[in-house]
Design the sequence.
């Protein structure tokens, strides 16, 4: 299996990044994880727009124009038809403490990942003690290389026998799951937190908002909105829409399998 590192294709086991790289030291970078559909990157234009927004927010100067050619060649060399394509860009080497030196050369890593088996559905969520980082603190609507909040929230959920953690913002409004966006269905309307709540601008979220057979409403919603839902699902690029069976420790329960299956059906139709 090959990866692309900076300017060459190398075996994955031989690829290495400097210990002085700011991506390693500080999580100073951005990344994109893109689903593959019959060997083609799904929603390429959306992912490039989000990658460029993240680079601009972190003030990393990087030309994304060659990426499509690089990724196309890597997919061909690895014979990748399904799974995921991951593009990571860090600021590169050069620091004076936290302050980057001027003229850093960014580090680029592109790799293909095998499809992961989906978790057993429906999944359980844990109401996290961690508060979602706000857009006023970090550009969290993009895919930042530092993901410690999501790591801690998922570990917390695992400690309680749950699949993922549900994060609220500083106002107590629903933001997202630690590794996914969240939607809920009520009276033929699909609700999801707005990006202003700190939710990631997820690619699957983007597709659902555009393609949903139900009306979609984005806004600020407090936790009781979930209790009154008919179905709840979490969404990300690895598994599409996963039905949520319950939220702990609130002991709220939903029958979400049918709604999640319908979402996955229209996502597959769009991908075709």
Sequence:
């Amino acid at each position: 299996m090959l990866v692309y590192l900076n300017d060459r294709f190398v075996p994955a086991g031989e690829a290495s990044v400097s210990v002085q790289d700011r991506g390693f030291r500080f999580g100073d970078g951005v990344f994109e994880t893109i689903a593959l559909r019959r060997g083609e990157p799904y929603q390429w234009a959306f992912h490039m727009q989000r990658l460029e927004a993240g680079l601009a927010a972190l003030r990393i100067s990087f030309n994304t124009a060659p990426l499509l050619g690089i990724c196309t060649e890597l997919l061909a060399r690895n014979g990748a038809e399904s799974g995921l394509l991951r593009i990571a860009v860090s600021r590169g080497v050069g620091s004076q403490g936290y302050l980057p030196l001027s003229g850093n050369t960014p580090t680029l890593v592109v790799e293909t990942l095998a499809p992961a088996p989906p978790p057993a559905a429906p999944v359980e969520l844990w109401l996290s003690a961690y508060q979602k980082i706000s857009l006023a603190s970090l550009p969290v609507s993009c895919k930042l290389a530092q993901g410690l909040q999501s790591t801690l929230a998922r570990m917390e959920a695992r400690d309680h026998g749950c699949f993922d953690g549900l994060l609220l913002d500083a106002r107590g409004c629903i933001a997202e799951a630690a590794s996914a966006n969240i939607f809920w269905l009520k009276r033929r309307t699909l609700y999801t937190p707005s990006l202003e709540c700190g939710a990631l601008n997820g690619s699957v979220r983007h597709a659902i908002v555009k393609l949903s057979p139900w009306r979609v409403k984005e806004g600020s919603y407090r936790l009781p909105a979930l209790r009154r839902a008919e179905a709840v699902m979490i969404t990300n690029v690895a598994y599409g829409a996963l039905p949520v069976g319950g939220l702990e420790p609130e002991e709220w329960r939903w029958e979400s399998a049918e709604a999640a299956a319908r979402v996955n059906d229209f996502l597959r139709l769009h991908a075709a």
